[in-house]
Amino acid sequence: MLVNITNNKINTNGGKLFKAISSDTRLSILERLSEGEIHISGIARELGISVPVAAKHVKILEEAELVERKKFGNLHMIGIKLNNVYSLLDHFAENSVLEVEKGTNLLEALKAVAAVEITKVGSMTKVISTDGEKGLYLYEVNGKSPDKTVDEFRFDEDAIVEWKKLVPVTKKRLFVNVKKEKAEKT
Q: How far is the CA of 174 from the CAs of 64, 138, 170, 178, in angstroms?
């Protein structure tokens, strides 16, 4: 079963999520909303579609909890719910169940389910590759980021570990135009 985690609750709306992202028009709406809130008629105008068609697409995105609507009288402003868009990617995470002895460190547990390459940076052990995928990795235990390295963190009780690879996702794009200097008169 697919799950979507929103506000620390599990929501079984995987079908709605995939329906929402199966349309080029809805993806265009999400792309536009990543720039900021806009009213439905603005979405329609920018995408060259009618307001009722835009409203229908927004409704599907709302049902998937990817956007939210704020009403100001007759004006409906639509905004993106970025955390839910990001959590959509969690649907593709591999899940493993592992039983370990009390006191086992995270690195040992991780090695039991994945090919792990590590490097030492001073006294710190860092994972630089998991299952052949090089990159920068971090982890959370029960939704919190511990202040210990993978070889220092030890399990004293059952836990959910989310092993995350930092992926270069553009959060902000700047188009910088340098002013041309005026030609000097001689």
A: 30, 27, 10, 12
- Confidence band (pLDDT; 50, 70, 90) for 181? confident
10 and 36 together in one domain: yes
If one counts the domains in the chain, the total is 2
| H helical segments located in 23-138 | 24-33, 40-47, 51-63, 82-88, 106-113
- 77: Cβ contacts below 8 Å, ≥ 6 apart: 37, 38, 39, 69, 70, 71
CA distances from residue 37 to 4, 78, 92 in whole angstroms, order as listed: 23, 5, 28
| Residues contacting residue 116 through CB under 8 Å, at least 6 positions apart | 107, 110, 127, 129, 130
φ and ψ of 81, to 5 deg: -105, 85
The CA distance from 152 to 150, in Å, is 6
DSSP 3-state of 2: coil
The whole-model pTM stands at 0.55
Q: Specify burial of residue 77 (Cβ count, 10 A radius: 0-12, 13-18, 19+).
A: middle
Residue 103 region, left (φ>0) first, then alpha (ψ -120 to 50), else beta?
left
Output the six-digit token pair for 173.
């794009």
- Do 46 and 114 have their domain in common? no
Q: What is the pLDDT of residues 150-169, one digit of tens each?
A: 999 999 999 999 998 887 76
**47 plus 29 within the same structural domain:** yes
